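PROTOCOL LOG
Step 1. Enter all chains and additional molecules of the complex.
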Amino acid sequence: MNRPESYHANTVWVFILTLVVFTVVSVPAFCYEIDTTRVREKPEENITFGEAVLAAPSFILNLPFWVLKNVSDFTVNEIVYSKPIQALFALKLRPIWGFYPTGGYNSNAGVKAGIVYRVKDLLSEEEDFKVKASYSTHDYQTYSLRYKIMPQNSIFNEVHFNFSYRQKPRESFYGIGNRTSDDNEVAFNLENGFMGFGWNHEISSQFSTGVDFSYRILNIYDGQDPSLTGSLDSIQAKFDLSEDELANARVLTVGMNLKYDWRDHPGQTTSGGYHALELSYNRGRGQLQDLEYFLASVSLYQFIHIYRQRVLVLNFRTETIGKTDGSPDLPFYLRPALGGEESLHGYKEHRFIDNTTMLAAVEYRFPLLQGVDGLLFFEEGRVFDDFSKDFDLKNWHYSTGIGIRLWDQEGLRLNGYAAFSKESPQFYVHLSETL
Amino acid sequence: MKNYMKISLLLLSLMLMLGCSGYKPVLQPEGPYWVDDDKQDIPEPSSKDPNLAWMSIKRSSFDQIEDGLDLERNFRILSDEREEAANINSFDEVPNCTWFTNRHGFARMTPDEIAEGVDLTPGPDTSGPWLVFRPKVQGTTPGFWIEDSRGDQYVIKFDPKGYPEMATAAAAMASRYFHACGYNVPQETIVYYRPEILQVKEGVKFEDKAGVKREFTQQDLEDILKRVHHEPDGRIRSLASLSLGIHGKIKGPFSYSGRRSDDPNDWFDHQDRRELRGLYVIGSFINHYDLKDQNSLDIYVEENGNKFLKHFLIDFGSTFGSDGQGPKPPIKGYANMIDLRDAFVSLITVGLKTWDWRGGGEVIYPSIGYFEADIFQPDKFDPIYPNPAFEDKTDRDCYWGAKIVMAFRDSDLRALIETGQYSNPQAEEYLFETLKKRRDKIGRFWFSKVNPLDYFETEYAGSDLRIRFDDLGIKYELWPQDAVYDYEIRYGKELIRKDRVKTGEIILTQDDLNRMTSAFKATDKKEDYIYRMDIRTTRGNGDPSKPTRLHFWYHHDENKFSLVGVEHLD
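Step 2. Run joint prediction.
Step 3. Record the structure below.
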């Protein structure tokens, strides 16, 4: 049967219209309707046999957390309102104003505890005044006073005065030179009085210079570590030291420094660098009044951003002293040293002492959390008696390890290192600003 | 022999652990419950004020260790048998309760209704005066509490300097979004006003920056206003958040875990509530990074003579591209503040494993902040710290959340964006495109975890039973329309019918229904009984999906079937 064309057209239209109506009407309708008469009562809690059985071990496992949760809730709430503790919880350790406790530990000093009083605006609004007193279980003592003024509209961007007295009865010494052994460790007692003042001037946002004057009183006594040789006579004989190398010293110093700092974010740098040059002229007084030497140190840091906050830090440091003709030997405790928290982490503090030190280090930093970085490092360092004659690439001491850095937008808050070398491993945790 | 004993004991323990499922909705002939009776009169509960720092440490570390030691939970995770939400009804939905009211994801709201949001007042009366009775001077973004000429109290918040419109728009849009989703939220209104209408109430004390408690003066108010953005005509744009005190007495935030011991209406552990678990997906859509206990509030309200707690989400300043005090840093929404899991991966790979967000992010429009859709992954969203409800979520919870997100169609998104009152149309368009991309990513991801057949309807057409449903993947244009649906009906273990359809309609003829009833009659049982229909979807040349399971109740006396349960098996 032949149908007129309009029939086909009508069929299409009917189909489209049906589709449209179906879509328009049915899509919104495809939702469940809420029957408000269908009200659920409080359900009974049926604990299955399995849950009952598991409840016991679960309770036992959860007990410490229950205690921690409930006790800590109370404790934190109670003490958090004390400002230093509040600052500690917020990881905001600087700057704290007023009185606050300080403390620490290292194997020589033992447990240290002390108190700090820090105040702004002592005389004007541009000051930072800090007094600190601490004592340790091994009789280490520190008393220090620092007064810093940062005048505006002056060529001196910072003027500072420092006074301190320190007593360190268990300092370690291993002999002078690059080939010393940690088996030969002895202890000595160093008393150090310091007074100084200086100023800094910012030439530009990246370039600064400063001048410092100081007078130091250094007295050496028998060490007080009962497990180590401590008499100065024994030390002199054991290491074949001259009288001058074990003498007390009074040293007048005038120094200057130049710093070029183009890090992108000091404290948490991802690119840029930091170069520092320090030079000082030192003149002995009293027993070592003929002592006369120069000290120069260079510190170069380069931060290379690899990708996505992975940063490679290259560091080269050297420190050297040069005596003038006729000057007596320098006391060993005034000479440059490697080892400890600042350099060659895998060795104890001041492990290697001589006239020149040199250190090359590479550190790889990678993000763990927001504000927390992990790091791997490798360092090599060496000391030299006469750098111009002795320099070689042999017998460098290496140190390697891992670490962690906590930082926020204002800078670094905490860093920790576990460092390994041929000698015993060293661990450091430090709350401070570092590079 | 001893070994056999040990193995038997181990198996028994495993069976006990896996055999004990949590609350499961009971199938009933009348169908699902749609309202929870949790508005019973209760004595006034105590106020809570958890410490933010402590909660952060607890959620990030102690809770993580505790979870690690939870044997049952870990066996469930290993065997992919996580406990489903406890408060769902037999349709896999959340009944209306003091936490949640089914709105846009359930029965579509109009764009105007979405844009209206909570509408208790018309917003503060900008003809003035506004009496400032509590200042907030700490922090980078200041604010204050005001009472307007009508006597209504509002918290006034500002945009951070350099980012006009960002935080106020985010909060205004987010509050409407969460309201449309079904949550209880405060009323948030964007207002423009002249600073001259502000007056300091006499005798208001505050702690200044130096920590000294003293009287709040007009000069202090002016100092605050100096720190905020002013329009070229001198007016100030703010977000006015109606004080939740209008509802009742504020009782502090709710916790995303456990229950309130002083609230008899608190039936389910909060981490087991579907609406809190599903908030993971709902929050991820607008990057609500700040989903923490402190951004919630329990309010002791009175309705119909009963006093009970109602549960609110608050503080939406850190949604979309805003972080409240500035644009959102790229990490936010992509890792916890202290993300021990990511840290562990970084540690063992010494930083070789990286995440896309570490590539940094670009703020294209200051009024939007940092908000993107390209590196967004729906299952990788992380709030400020691990949230117990999110930690326990299942694919079904996320499907439920995604269903609500997908209900926001383009016109709804445009209506939401309009409530942000952006001055730059390009910024609006950017936000719209970003939201669209994020929405569709959410739909594609979570809809693929279950079989997204939903909104089932049954009706008798003559003697045939018609079952209609939406394939949400097709409805929302996420996948091509080449899907086929294989279904099988079982009575107990007995297979009664198996067939395939190509549309969202299954017709059971009189013959099919007779076969079903005869299967029942053969058992000679007197009571009603339940039939099960599993529907699997095959898209293109892909594998069949997991089933969506329907439960039909056979009403013996009426000789009728009704749909009483829907499960999206994962």
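Step 4. Note key features.
The longest helix of chain A spans residues 49-79.
The domain at 158-430 of chain A is CATH 2.40.160.50 (Porin).
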